Amino acid sequence: MRHRAPDLYASLLSWWAHHGRRDVPWRLLPGGRQPGPDDVLPTYPVWVAEVMLQQTRLAVALPFWRRWLDRFPDLASLAAASRQDVLHAWQGLGYYARAQQLHGVATQLAAAKRQLPADRAGLERLSGLGRTTAASIAATVGNSADPILDGNVRRLLARLLAFPAPPRQATALFWTMVELLLNGRRARDFNQALMDLGALVCRPRAPLCRCCPWQRHCHAYAKGIQQQLPVRPTPTPIPRFVVGVGVVLDRQGKVLIGQRQPDGLLGGLWEFVGGTQEPGETMAATVVRALWQNVGLAVAVGPELLRFDHAYTHRRLSFVVYLCRPVAGDARPVVNQQVVWVWPHDLHRYPFSAAHIRIIQALRERSGQT
What we know:
Blueprint: H1 5-19, H2 43-52, H3 58-71, H4 75-80, H5 83-90, H6 97-111, H7 120-124, H8 131-142, H9 151-161, H10 171-182, H11 187-200, H12 219-223, E1 240-248, E2 255-259, E3 270-271, E4 273-276, H13 283-295, E5 298-311, E6 316-328, E7 338-342, H14 354-367
Parallel strand pairs: 1-6
Antiparallel strand pairs: 1-4, 2-3, 2-7, 5-6
Helix pairs in contact: 1-11, 2-3, 2-8, 8-11, 9-11
């Protein structure tokens, strides 16, 4: 590997110069110019982008990044924003803890009258940043000699070596490889080139080996096993739950929503009230029980609005949603931070998760709204 490193390095950067994603906005100088080796880019836009890119593809993250920078152009404006405004700006991107981490870091730094660090060690001390994300930010901002090791790079190196085990079983080896390949040179470009090669050519399925600058060095390609690698760990069974949800409309036509507690999954987002179905329980009974336990409201369950499946990282949910009307009790926040009655046309003012946005859309379609 050591004797091939200079060739791998040179061929990758040559490929990237012609085929890489060189127009990523947070990697450019004002006016859209490519930065030189000694240029320093602003940290804030890069930090936001790299956090968004955790668990999210570039094409998906880019429009969110643009809207975020329009709304929160700097650290001070993010620190001054409310949590609800931050979650609303993040709505639809998923993994909402990332948004809360950005906001938390901004408020902490603002309170301490400090700026974002630009070095890897300082960045790693911030909430939500591991070694790879911190290294990517540092190298992009200041061209520091910090290599990265994300999922794209692990896959790329596993195929290059025809590595016979899951890459995470040899993390130290893979870090040694990227350090050897980089050798302290042009980290800003080299790291992006690695990510681009993994995303555009050495794809998870159907890799485009004919386009790969590393083809002649690739052991997996030589053995014809590139589509079988990287070796995946034995998957953990993902549990599935059925959730009954009540869209409760009062006599005026207002709908009941609750805000989740700030910590935990989807913390701070708004939702329609529901609960997980228990053994032997009908879906209607699940909805009645959930509304009584969660907000102290007795309801009559009406027609089914919709049903759909939604996948999270560690669980699968099947939602069954009913229209309901209140018959007794006053809604109060037993489980949620707060509960409110709102007009359906005002639901867009509140940040919801992707699953509950589907419910809003179904409610609008039923009422004839667009």
